[in-house]
Amino acid sequence: MLQRTIPLLILSASGLILILSYFSPITETWSEQVVSWFNILAGVAFVLGAGNLLAVNLEKISSKRPGWAYSAITLVSFGAMLVVGLSKWGAVPDAKHPDVHLAGSQDSTQAGYGWAYEYVLSPLTATMFALLAFYVASAAFRAFRAKNFEAILLLGTAFIILLVQIAAGAFLTNWIPEDSFFAFLRAESLKAIVTEVFQTAGMRAILIGIALGTAATSLRLILGIDRSALSKG
Length: 233
Prior knowledge:
- The chain is mainly alpha-helical and 233 residues long.
- It has a domain at 144-233.
- 71% of the residues lie in helices and 0% in strands.
- It has 7 helices and no strands.
- It has helices spanning 2-20, 28-62, 68-87, 112-143, 149-164, 167-173, 187-222.
- Helix 1 (2-20) packs across helix 2 (28-62).
- It is extended and about 70 Å long.
């Protein structure tokens, strides 16, 4: 019983403190303390996540399940970055503490961690998104079929945005005078109408819905109605 009650009380107290900190100047420092607790818990969670990563991938390698080579690459990469990051290999010396090696910065490509991020992870990420572009194009082709009114609106909006992004869009509409009644048909005007009116209205409606959902979920957690965050049971 205590294994569920104590975490629930900590969760409720932390949530209430963070809410009160936005309405009372007396509790402003309390929220900073809660955030510090969160950072400590996040550090512990990273350690647990690393342990779970090792356990899952080592089990896959030992049983030679399909794709075990990718697990081996994952573990080797994880170990290499962990060693380079913790040792701060090649870190740029800090101006305030030039004699303290661990105080150096790893953001520069001179450091091993920064070099791996800039020249290994970033190109791999770009490659992955480049491959995903083909799947996006295929999905867009299926979604833009004018089967109903909503699909027609989607197709028309996409056509307008794509048209105004290229030189042909401006070429086709530049003959319309800017001070005429039909000036809204010019490429730049159509783009502004779609992105600043319809898109903004839609995004605000979505964000309002997300905010209401977040508030409802937070209240359920703080009041102890939803206890799914504590355990599967």
